[in-house]
Amino acid sequence: MAILLEQACSLLQENSRQMPVVELPLAACYGRILAQNTAADIDFPPFARSPLDGYAVRFADVKHATADCPVSLEVIDDVPAGMVPRTAVRAGTAVRIMTGAKIPAGADAVIRLEDTVTVNGFINIITAAGADRNICRQGEEFKQGAVLLTPGSALRDGALGILAMFGQDKPRVYEKPRVAILATGTEIVAVNQLVEPGKIRDSNSYMLAAKVLEAGGEPVLLGQVRDNIDDIEQRLEQAADIDLYLTTGGASVGDYDLMRPLFERLSVRPLFSRVAIKPGMPVLAGCWRDRLLIGLSGNPAAAGVSFELLIRPLVRRMAGVRQIERPRAAAVLQQKLVKTGPVRRFVWAECIFDNGRLAARPLLLQSNGMMAGLLEANALLDIPAFSPPLVAGATVAALLL
Amino acid sequence: MAILLEQACSLLQENSRQMPVVELPLAACYGRILAQNTAADIDFPPFARSPLDGYAVRFADVKHATADCPVSLEVIDDVPAGMVPRTAVRAGTAVRIMTGAKIPAGADAVIRLEDTVTVNGFINIITAAGADRNICRQGEEFKQGAVLLTPGSALRDGALGILAMFGQDKPRVYEKPRVAILATGTEIVAVNQLVEPGKIRDSNSYMLAAKVLEAGGEPVLLGQVRDNIDDIEQRLEQAADIDLYLTTGGASVGDYDLMRPLFERLSVRPLFSRVAIKPGMPVLAGCWRDRLLIGLSGNPAAAGVSFELLIRPLVRRMAGVRQIERPRAAAVLQQKLVKTGPVRRFVWAECIFDNGRLAARPLLLQSNGMMAGLLEANALLDIPAFSPPLVAGATVAALLL
């Protein structure tokens, strides 16, 4: 019995574990998933500061300044960025201040350098255009104590900048799940091997390894193994420190489909064997020694779809990612799609923006193989079961890859 | 004089070099940029094969088969995947065949297992539903000699699968450009240092390092240095094997802006010093010892925009990427945008799909700092010079990050 995709996803996630947490140097955290809350340890900016080079003044002194009637102020100090003002600004005085420097006490405005004229230790303020005051207030970006990042955040430019701003030089992140990939099938040979009659090279392992990396896991290639249950068992047993086992091939019910007998031999606790989607209906999933072992189809089109829909959310859940699903969007079919039927179907497609709308072009080379389709695909169209054939212009749901 | 963004990009690219080429094991190639053509070395599939488990037959024998009037055939061979058929199919015979196995000579159709009944070494074909023949023809996916990948292809799932299919176990890829990042400014302290009055921690280095990684480069963090031209020079001199030098801070014309005097001291051949965009107008770019040296603003909002518009395309060009620009799309403003003016302006924004259309929400915290904006930003809105204030509902151009 085939189970629904959502049920299959839930079963996998219920039977998976989140990865342990590790401290990493900040510079090594790109692409990692945060495992801690991060609060501002100080206000930011930590002090009122100037956004430009100019003069810190009392606004009351300069509010009537014009080019015809400039206001003259004595310059009593100079504050470069990184230094602390030594003097307060008093009536009739100004302090030269650099971008990023702390506003001296007594000042409540900064006049841009361009709006001043220097005359023998005094400045003439020639415009009151500083009415917006040019002061970045203490804490205007972040208040001390504010929680800025929470567990599950993906660490990219902005998040890494914030961790740095608030002193997190060794953030706690999740370890990456190590995902074993074993290609089974007597017809499969290694990429550097001679392709004898009846054989093909192993392309699934590399395609799936790329998808594991993209999902935030660490692929562990176990190579290729012929259709022999002892060999398959041995290869799986030899792999060390694996968090999730994937195989390709032998997941169906034919004479040489060895994953079912393997599950029995290894006392795998079965979860499901078929998912009600096409392609990728045969998927054998179970629990082996507290890890998930999942047998995908040997057909790259089917294995690719199964990975996207079942394995990627699982890997992301294990990796601690908050948002495990692909974004969904409505897209307009650019050509008809007749391959519908009683089973929910996923169709690789290329989506482009067409005048602010998303247009989807189904990639048709997916009956068998379809590596070429994967080159161009940036979406999977989700066609419901019992959908009628769809005409060009119809709106469909797209998972954006 | 500020030059146009497009001119600045051209100058940088004209003065850059593409990275050298290196051979890498296929499993290490994820995310790399291909530096070779890849043609199919064999047809794919390399032989006619069965897409399912069943019986290879002569279609002429079975075309009238029905459940009421089945056709009986003698089973004369069995071809597992990876094996070579030993016998040709003759009239009145069938060969058992597994998914992926080579079609025996004489057969021109495969009948699904489900449409047969086995009786003592014979099979009864009970439906002629095999009229589509169930044969994947030799070369139906790829013809031998077809060029499938060209230099500049990013190696992700589909491309890695294709390299594997055609025996490329050590593809030639471009080396990643090593991009030095030096944060200058007396106000800047390292992330693990005490934040004394007047100081802030270095967040730009980590934000930019993330952007370098995302662009396909390898960041080399040179740390933080105070506003001292000797110190800055020394730090740049000490960095080894750098393909591109970036600094933050000191790129403007204030008393403590040291990048201009540094350029003179190092005999940097200047390219430009201002780009006609906001934020990020001051950018000091030149050639130093056959490498580009680019001084960005110390303001994260400005440095981030400069990176996106100038540095990212440059890094991608150096890295060998074919598509160096971000995709552009029209987006509908969800709120008004009054901050326009005589200079072309870029505005961080969050774009979401709203009923198949792209809707843009400008992120306003970008006067100064704006790390929080970067957390949510997935687009940069491109507002032309002399644009009037824009109302909610107006269409704008968005660069999709």
TrEMBL record, chains A, B:
Keyword Transferase applies: yes
Domain MoaB/Mog: residue ranges: 180-317
Cited Gene3D superfamilies: MoaB/Mog-like domain, MoeA, C-terminal, domain IV, Molybdopterin biosynthesis moea protein, domain 2, Molybdopterin biosynthesis moea protein, domain 3
SMART domains, per database record: MoCF_biosynth
Record-listed E.C. numbers: 2.10.1.1
Pathway it works in: Cofactor biosynthesis; molybdopterin biosynthesis
Cofactor: Mg(2+)
Domain of life: Bacteria
One Pfam family matching this protein: MoCF_biosynth
Major enzyme class: transferase
InterPro entries recorded: MoaB/Mog-like_dom_sf, MoaB/Mog_dom, MoeA-like, MoeA_C_domain_IV, MoeA_C_domain_IV_sf, MoeA_linker/N, MoeA_linker/N_sf
One of the GO biological process terms: Mo-molybdopterin cofactor biosynthetic process
Protein name: Molybdopterin molybdenumtransferase
Species for this entry: Dendrosporobacter quercicolus
